[in-house]
Amino acid sequence: MSTLRDAALTSKAWPFEEARALLKRYEKKAPEKGYVLFETGYGPSGLPHIGTFGEVARTTMIRRAFEVISDIPTRLICFSDDVDGMRKVPENVPHQEMLRQHMQKPLTSVPDPYGEYESFGHHNNAMLRRFLDTFGFQYEFISATEFYKSGKFDDTLRLAAERYDRIMEIMLASLREERQQTYSCFLPIHPETGRVMYVPMKEVNAKDGTITFDDETGREWTLPVTGGHVKLQWKPDFGARWAALGVDFEMYGKDHSTNTPIYDGICEALGGRKPNHMTYELFLDDQGQKISKSKGNGLTIDEWLTYAATESLSYFMYQKPKTAKRMHFDVIPRAVDEYHQQLRAYPTQDAAGQVNNPVWHIHGGHVPESKMVVTFGMLLNLASVAGATDAKGLWGFINRYAPQASPEGNPDLDAAAGFAVRYFADKIAPTRVFRLPTEVERAAIEDLRARLLAWEGGLDDEALQSMVFAVGKDHGFDPLRDWFKALYEVLLGASDGPRFGGFVALYGISETIALIDKGLSGDLV
What we know:
Blueprint: H1 2-10, H2 14-24, E1 36-42, H3 50-69, E2 74-80, H4 96-100, H5 120-134, E3 140-143, H6 144-149, H7 154-162, H8 164-172, H9 177-180, E4 186-188, E5 203-205, E6 210-214, E7 220-224, E8 230-232, H10 234-245, E9 249-253, H11 260-269, E10 276-280, E11 283-284, H12 301-307, H13 310-318, E12 325-326, H14 332-345, H15 351-355, H16 358-363, H17 376-386, H18 392-401, H19 411-428, H20 439-453, H21 461-474, H22 481-492, H23 500-507, H24 509-521
Parallel strand pairs: 1-2, 1-9, 2-3, 9-10, 11-12
Antiparallel strand pairs: 4-8, 5-6, 6-7
Helix pairs in contact: 2-3, 7-10, 8-11, 10-11, 13-14, 17-19, 17-23, 20-21, 20-24, 21-23
């Protein structure tokens, strides 16, 4: 353990860098509450998307790193702001007209359009928990509805009434003049309509812990700030939650970063200590637009898991969190193969290398062995020529290439074969475009066919790759990438592909010759 801890204390892996910064927070004395508290927030205005998962995955990585370098116990809370009023109807859910009748009501007061749960908020919370449980995260879930109504937030809300002027001073400095006129950090929930009210306060009574306001009809109301009658605007809520719970660490997207001084200031105004934070770059869809819960653009967690195992998504989340990344279907194959590449490297590394390896952070140090003797990229290309409809259809080829492999002994490979067939059918087959070779390319491909016909080197992928390489060189392709591009476009209907020698070894010599014949005759076009 000491070797691991020593390596962790100097590791440049970002989870350890964040963990060391957090440990400095308590270098003089341990936290009075007895643990270090990590928090992630979720706004359940729409179905959870991958960015939400990413926050929990990355926070968990920092938590695990912290537990290596410190003996202070830790907790992770996933907090859902489900008292938030529904400001717009998400585009990707059913019964839009019904939902429009409940605008501005807290999400846990809006009926579930799917008819499965007590409310829309409860539905989205359940979806979030199901996603997180799929990945085995250790977390505690807190619903803002329960937090407000149960009285757990009451002390902080009373303090917010006492220190209303200080909170408003922080908030008003960040608002335009016209917004300042009507802004209040308190949002009453109308006793009759149940809607969240965005109205100015006529009075905030710190002694009684009440607020007084007029509703849209001009009728005056006085409500206690406690017991779920009132909620805080989302920016004050952020800081107040930190103070109420004693949060030590929370990360959020770059779009929140300008609000950090506001969140921190309100936390401190309410007697709390501002937590450590980390901001991450946003995920983008295939058009370069920010992924949005309400739009439903970008990948969902379920969509990723349709085509690859959970660990590949965790690997994607680990990579460069402070760099904006496109998150579309085409990133999945590379994530799968890079993840297994890191798995294979892990046993050969010393402690310093292992704590810098993404798989240490994905698996919390309990790193499994990779049994992927064929890459996912190769399986995709095999699926494209084998006509397979399931994993079984690929195993005949796999077994000839790797006789010791089996679905039982290589479960990750068996799962990947099934994913590859599905991915090819849904994402690659509809976009394939074959072409006939040029005269120069035809001559080279015919030469390749002749050399394969005379081949006596077995299914050695390196030897086959060298032979394919030599054909391209002998026929004057410069750069040689053009030769491989021609092979892919003529034989596989794509501009990119695997190491062609490896593909031949997996698919088979005679099968590749038959594929070449089809490509040269135009049968594939």
